[in-house]
Fold this sequence. Notes:
Blueprint lengths: L15 E5 L18 H13 L3 E6 L19 H9 L1 H8 L2 E2 L10 E4 L13 H12 L4 E4 L22 E2 L4 H6 L10 H7 L3 E2 L9 E4 L2 E4 L5 H11 L2
Parallel strand pairs: 1-2, 1-4, 2-3, 4-5, 5-9, 6-7
Antiparallel strand pairs: 8-9
Helix pairs in contact: 1-2, 1-7, 2-3
Amino acid sequence: GHTSGKSSSKSRKMGKILMVVTSNEAMGKMPDRKTGLWIEELAAPYYAFKAAGHTITLASPAGGTPPIDAGSKGDGFYTADAKKFLEEDEETKKMFANTVKLSECDMANFDAIFYPGGHGPLWDLVTDAKSIALLEAADAAGKPIGAVCHGPAVFKNVKGKSGKPLVDGKKCTGFTNVEEGQVQLTEWVPFLLEDTLKGLGGVFSNAEPWNSYVQADGNLVTGQNPQSSPATAVEFLKLVK
């Protein structure tokens, strides 16, 4: 049931975390290539949040089962956490098959919001009015906002409480131009994330390609790439009340 394990930790209030994933599987206009969610970037933070005692709601624009980028189930990327999430854990299998529609979510019911990546969000969450509204409500309330890899793309059209872009003047990171080039998708993405975050006034920095790197600034926590998702979750958890 839902109550298992809750009573063991009475010392502090457990948080409710909204995790938002893509519903888009098209790689823009690229023929014969599908994308979606990078599963490890959902699974690793999910298990970190759960281990910390928080309650997680998984939402997507369309609801139901989100598309998974097949690359994230490939050699070297399909981690133990990812495999457990999709194949072994009955609770997460059910959650993944029945994601809540984003339109049904209200930031007032959550303490924090987190976006895994994959290329999918570049075409749906970036312009999703509900996603933008949730992020603006979270920032206005000072609630933690986290994103990893292509996840920070969702900030593109989001204004912070100052009315300026959410990332303006904030230390941040995300999937780099070099990494995009190395996966040979520079020509196919609608925009380069690194250039976009810099253009919005973000104080962008990064590590070498495929190395774990996280930036935290105020209520905003971002990670560079799939390798960064465990460390991004750790930083994010420091802020979840």
